[in-house]
Amino acid sequence: VPTSGTSPQPVPHIVGGAAVSSFEYTFLARVYMYMSGTTVGFCGASVLTDEWVISAAHCFEGTPASSLMIGVHRHNVWSHRTYEHSCAQNIRVLEKHCHGSYSGNAAQGNDICLLKLSSAIACSSQVEKVQLDDGSVWPWSSSAPYNGGNAITAGWGSYDQAGTTYTTTPHKASIELYTHSQCSSNFASAGWPSTLFSSTNGGMLCAGNVGVSEPSPDSCNGDSGGPLFVPVDGAHVLVGIISWGSQ
């Protein structure tokens, strides 16, 4: 939750979190841009099926599907050619389907994109498929969310508040989910429109750690497109996609 009314910015890496154990979240994927033989990782994603991943639309503005690769069953991503596990793959993207109502401004919602892989994941049984929330984990209401409101975000983004220092292995942070009335109240007090989290504004939710001393655990640069998820009965349920923040 922002503490000042600054412009929304795509969020990069995990600040103030903890290291993810090797292949702890095998649904966590890395997005690469492939150009002229050079591959650069820049966003996160989540594996939905053997051929589809989900990420944030703002990651792919002006970028054709043919320039994208998805790293699956990856952990140390120092080099896209260094595979630390026999099931690690980088798979080219065949199709990109971003939300038709995404305006180019993440703060207006609909910041979501589906990517179809050019080939199925080879080690399907080794790669978890994240589950989508049916509304029972994060209800669109003013009631308290599942698990007391705690969710996890993870990614390869920056781990300092300046957003300049990156890691080669993913990190995670436990952050608090807020109801929509709490989101509206917190953001309005920071100078944002009170309608930012209305039911008609692109299906956004907010999360953070209000009242925690800085740097509080949260997502940062490079984490965009990655998951906000809740562990439920041994599975991982996707309740949101990392989109934007004010700091």
Mean pLDDT, all residues = 78
Regions with pLDDT < 50 over 5+ consecutive residues? 1-15, 211-220
Q: What does the overall shape look like?
A: globular
Number of strands: 15
Q: Provide the domain count.
A: 2
| Span of the ends, CA to CA | 9 Å
What's the CATH first level of the largest domain?
A: Mainly Beta
Count of helical regions = 1
**CATH topology assignment of the largest domain:** Thrombin, subunit H
Could you tell me the strand content as a percent range? 25-35%
| Fourth-tier CATH superfamily name of the largest domain | Trypsin-like serine proteases
SS content category: mainly beta
Helicity, as a percent range: under 10%
Largest sheet: 7 strands, mixed
Please state the CA-atom Rg, rounded to the nearest Å.
17 Å
Order of helices and strands: EEEEEEEEEEEHEEEE
The CATH architecture of the largest domain = Beta Barrel
Keywords: Disulfide bond, Hydrolase, Protease, Secreted, Serine protease
Protein name: Peptidase S1 domain-containing protein
Subcellular location: Secreted
Domain Peptidase S1: 14-247
